[in-house]
């Protein structure tokens, strides 16, 4: 018994029909509103390799400046924690570094793609600023200045930016 060309084409049509039936409704739609109405949500995943692909030297210059300032601040903190008399100087440098970090985040906000909903953009910026300020306050406690808390907070803020950029790019590709 041989498998004829007609049987092959018939089986192919059946398998394609089954594949079409198993797809979610409106998954091929290019309209975001239709996807939201149908209840299909875009799954956000945290893939560190995808985040590394989102790095852009020109867009990320403010975050690079923040990192350099934070490393210098940590060096000053280690010296000032060793000499207890210089602790007020370390506290002032911490405050100035926080103000500089907030200014750099404001500057970086202008280079990012602004969405139609400005409330989300402001909320994300305020979350980053709150994280930065909280990390700086935690770092200003006596004795904790030798820990690289500011550097960790800076990296977390930068990872948040890369995560948002990756998910924005996924949304644009899905909508295009």
Describe this structure in words.
The chain has 176 residues and is mainly α. The protein folds into two domains: 5-38; 48-175, no CATH class. Helices cover 72% and strands 0% of the residues. The chain is built from seven helices and no strands. The protein has helices spanning 5-22, 32-38, 48-52, 61-82, 87-111, 118-139, 149-175. The longest helix is centred in the C-terminal third of the chain and has 27 residues, at 149-175. It starts with a helix and ends with a helix.
Identify the notable features of this structure and list them briefly.
176 residues; mainly alpha; 2 domains; 7 helices; 0% strand
Write the layout of secondary structure elements.
Elements: H1 5-22, H2 32-38, H3 48-52, H4 61-82, H5 87-111, H6 118-139, H7 149-175
Helix pairs in contact: 4-5, 4-7, 5-6, 6-7
Q: Counting H and I runs of at least 4 residues, what is the number of helices?
A: 7
The unreliable regions are: none
Which radius of gyration do the C-alpha atoms yield?
25 Å
Give the beta-strand count: 0
Please indicate the percent range of residues in DSSP E strands (runs of 2 or more): under 5%
Average pLDDT metric: 76
Distance between the termini: 48 Å
- Domains counted in the coordinates: how many? 2
* Structural class computed from helices and strand pairing: mainly alpha
């Amino acid at each position: 018994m041989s498998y004829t060309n007609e049987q092959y084409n018939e089986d192919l049509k059946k398998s394609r029909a089954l594949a079409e039936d198993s797809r979610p409704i409106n998954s091929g739609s290019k309209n975001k509103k239709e996807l939201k109405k149908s209840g299909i949500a875009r799954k956000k995943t945290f893939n560190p390799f995808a985040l590394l692909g989102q790095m852009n030297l020109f867009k990320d210059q403010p975050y690079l400046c923040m990192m350099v300032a934070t490393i210098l601040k940590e060096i000053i903190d280690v010296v000032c924690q060793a000499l207890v008399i210089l602790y007020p100087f370390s506290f002032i440098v911490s405050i100035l570094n926080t103000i500089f970090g907030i200014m750099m985040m404001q500057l970086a906000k202008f280079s990012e793609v602004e969405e139609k909903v400005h409330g989300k953009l402001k909320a994300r910026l305020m979350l980053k600023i709150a994280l930065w300020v909280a990390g700086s306050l935690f770092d200003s406690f006596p004795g904790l200045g030798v820990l690289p808390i500011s550097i960790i907070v800076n990296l977390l803020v930068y990872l948040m930016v890369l995560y948002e950029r990756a998910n924005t790019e996924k949304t644009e590709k899905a909508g295009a």
